[in-house]
Amino acid sequence: MSSLKYLSLIFSLLLFHTAAYGQTRKNISQFSHFQSYFNPGLTGYEGSTVRGFVRNQWSGFEGAPQTFFFSTEIDFGELAGEIDPALMGKNAASINLLHDTYGAFRDTELMISYASRVRLTENHNLRLGVGVNYQSVRLDGHAMTTEEQNDPTLGQYVGSFSNMQFLDANIGMALTHRNYYFSYAIHRINGGKASSGDDFLEGYPAEQFVQVGFREALTPNFAIITNAFFRSRRDLPNVLELNIKALLMDKVWVGAGHRIDNASSLQLGFLTSKLKMGYLYEFPMGKRYLLPGSTHEFTVTLNLFRSNVRNKFEKDQVLIW
């Protein structure tokens, strides 16, 4: 990487408060496909699935963030043979694994979640969820930027490898319907105070998440899906994201999204009987154009038991969020 690009990256990171250890916030532009990662109460909302994504941020830049994610959700109602587990099933569990690299840091997060559902009406559920969050952060002291080397906390680890571990909990609740949902969750309710290893990070402040979605089939071959996502953490700016998608013939979707004052995105995906695959291209907006490169995000969801094909009893069902 040329020295000019290297200096540009450093300047951008400092200007927008996303220097290496500030990049601990993991952005997922297709957030609506990974509701249960942000809220344990939404575990199993779309049944038993295997999910994953790969995100390359600021692609083409050495040390730019890369994120890999894998999860499995099991709806015990489906395992028991419920006709409509989304309404009749009561319990679900999931395991989520996320690995993130950004500059000198390697961050691995393991989350195990459990959700229980209370049926409020014929079409509504109240979902409550809890999760255990284990996080391991590795610092490569050979890959620090000049600013990190001069940082009074990080500087003492120059030229060595250091590790830190955190153990915490997540909680969440959601009101769900086949066509809409409202949810609220908190990650790391203890603020990352239970830690071990070296001491190069000052904990992980609790973060709050609000997710809202609505979907409607306007014709048998055309549906609209909208989602909004808000997150708040005391040491980072608040984030509001919006997206809208159109599902065509239950086979292809196209959409667009916007992270307020940060970036916009375009997305494309397709469905088969069991599989959903999507691609998103994200580009910075306004002052964020100082940040180098664009972002590419690939997602995949495999339904383990139910099908992505509507039957005659579900003519108005929309198959994606």
Which secondary structure elements does this structure contain, and how are they paired or packed?
Layout: H1 3-15, H2 35-38, E1 49-56, E2 66-75, H3 76-79, H4 85-88, E3 91-102, E4 105-119, E5 125-140, H5 146-150, E6 161-176, E7 180-187, E8 195-197, E9 207-219, E10 222-233, E11 236-248, E12 252-259, E13 263-271, E14 275-284, E15 295-303
Antiparallel strand pairs: 1-2, 1-15, 2-3, 3-4, 4-5, 5-6, 6-7, 6-8, 7-9, 9-10, 10-11, 11-12, 12-13, 13-14, 14-15
Based on the model shown, name its key terms.
321 residues; mainly beta; Porin; 14-stranded antiparallel beta barrel; 5 helices; 15 strands; globular; disordered N terminus
Structural summary, described in words:
This protein is mainly beta. It has one domain: Beta Barrel (Porin). Helices cover 9% and strands 50% of the residues. The chain has 5 helices and 15 strands. The protein has helices spanning 3-15, 35-38, 76-79, 85-88, 146-150, and strands spanning 49-56, 66-75, 91-102, 105-119, 125-140, 161-176, 180-187, 195-197, 207-219, 222-233, 236-248, 252-259, 263-271, 275-284, 295-303. Strands 1-2-3-4-5-6-7-9-10-11-12-13-14-15 form a 14-stranded antiparallel β-barrel. A hairpin with a 2-residue loop joins strand 10 and strand 11 (236-248). The model is unreliable at 1-23 (pLDDT under 50).
